Amino acid sequence: MGVFLIAVAAWLARVEDWRSYTPLAGGGTVGGTAEQYVSEEKPSGVIRWLTTVDHKDIGMLYGAYALIAFAVGGLMVVLMRIELADPSMTLISNTFYNSLLTSHGITMLFLFGTPIIAAFSNYFIPLLIGADDMAFPRINAIAFWLLPPAALLIWAGFFPIPDVIPAQTAWTMYTPLSAGVGSGNQVNAGVDLMLLGLHLSGVSATMGAINFIATIFTERDEKVSWANLDIFSWTILTQSGLILFAFPLLGSAIAMLLLDRNFGTMFFSVDGGAILWQHLFWFFGHPEVYILVLPPMGIVSLVLPRFAGRRLFGFKFVVYSTLAIGVLSFGVWAHHMFATGIDPRLRASFMAVSLAIAIPSAVKTFNWITTMWNGKIRLTTPMLFCIGFVSNFIIGGVTGVFLASIPVDLVLHDTYYVVGHFHYIVMGAIAFAGFAGLYYWFPIYTGRMYQVTLGKWHFWLSMVGTNLTFFAMILLGYGGMPRRYATYLPQFATLHQVATVGALILLVGQIIFVWNFAQSWLEGREVEDGDPWDLADDDLTTAEWTWFERKLETAVTDGGEDETELATDGGQAVDDADADSADDA
């Protein structure tokens, strides 16, 4: 894989003039004038998607990739839940169950969670901040094209490849199991391929993070200051900073594990190696949770006020709480390790920080609720998903506070309670915010409107299915049911069956979503107004809708220079003098 990537880079360096890029929106070029290098129009068909460096196209590619991964990971877990409807092994083997367990977790976190956020941020960050494109368009494209081979490597064990079986290490890849120690089947190349795929996905995320930081710092329109930067851009900026510090550590730990597995080194195969892996992994793994949840918080903070008929309450405090979560997230990793026997003084300090990080999350929650209070609420599909996000996030957050307490964690560690808590955040919050964004911005990237009734069916089935499935898991955890088991004692059967019914309801909801999404994209009612949500009535129009209206008026992909004020959700648009004073402040 490394040789292949080097060959691609060499070929690009040989045939490409790297100074030739001119954004479709207009603007300057690097190393030459616009007259020297002109990009007249995009190619058509497959070539367009294979060669594009337009941030909107790359956002669409990220979105398609993430939704495919979401479908694959979802079907994996449906099969697991059907197996768990019966206490004994009836449908699939325990080995295959462990394979699905591992691949489901990695798929949803690395192949769906991070890319779906990148889809929104690639498409909308330049529009929101008034930039022509990303700071490094070609690096942006390279970051995406690292992901398809990453997925193939992660799923390689499920392909009919001789002597390669899927990894069965769970998504945490704990040593010594993942190091191939002993006579188990984890010595096989399927684990190595999975680790290489994870490595590629981490490189992709790191390249994207550098690009977003550079774009937000250097490509903002002169009217967009730090004082009125929109909340979604703030969350992406914070997330990118977390990625920049967290993902390289995961890459280093994976490289050490690959050396242990293939070259006989002893990083994790000695006394204390298992604890070392956990420290390295969770130093990445807990910021990863906030890497995944901060941008969805930004989406909700941007979308929810639009349908509450008022601006986001306490905008500055939402920004400050975002930055506080980013800083504190690097000081909580060992709360995953309370049961490992680490020094009690260290455990106490991590408990304190883990409890403290709940405060900025609560600040956001109260700001969302207060924004809705006495507002002119319109229960559109995006708004329903935002409200669902808030309610699920409260349940997921409160259950997490209990796990931050050492005595409670020692009882509930590695039970289904942890699974229920985590999935309330990942599915009940992150995915719900993703759906809110997909429905809210659907007119922009399709030019059409989805079927409203089907959208609301999607929400209610998802809401009911999420709470049935994951609240049953929380109760299973209270009963002492351990996680990661394909078989279990008969007394847990009823709650497992409730969780399975909830998972099937979720499946039906997602099938409706896929049908609505595809059919509306192809045949939905065309949007003729640049303000399909009537945001102008409450003076809540943001920059991307201004761009969309200009696009409809001029019938081009992106329109040249614009003299109108850039309104963000951070406050009223400001003139140059105000922007200068805000920057000075």
Automatic annotation (TrEMBL):
- How is this protein situated with respect to the membrane? Multi-pass membrane protein
Where is the stretch described as Disordered? 555-585
User: Which SUPFAM superfamilies does this chain map to?
Assistant: Cytochrome c oxidase subunit I-like (SSF81442)
The record's principal subcellular location, in a coarse class, is: membrane
Localization, per the record, is: Membrane
| Gene Ontology cellular-component annotations | membrane
Instruction: Keywords in alphabetical order, please.
Output: Electron transport, Heme, Iron, Membrane, Metal-binding, Respiratory chain, Transmembrane, Transmembrane helix, Transport
| Start and end residues of each Cytochrome oxidase subunit I profile domain | 49-533
Quote the biased-composition stretches of kind Acidic residues, using this chain's numbering: 575-585
GO BP annotations listed: aerobic respiration; electron transport coupled proton transport; respiratory electron transport chain
Gene Ontology molecular function: any one: heme binding
Could you list the residue ranges that cross the membrane?
62-84, 105-129, 141-161, 193-217, 237-259, 290-308, 317-338, 350-370, 382-404, 424-445, 457-478, 498-518
Matching Pfam families = COX1
- Similarity comment text for this entry: Belongs to the heme-copper respiratory oxidase family.
Q: Name it.
A: Cox-type terminal oxidase subunit I
The protein's organism comes out as: Haloferax denitrificans ATCC 35960
State the taxonomy lineage.
Answer: Archaea, Methanobacteriati, Methanobacteriota, Stenosarchaea group, Halobacteria
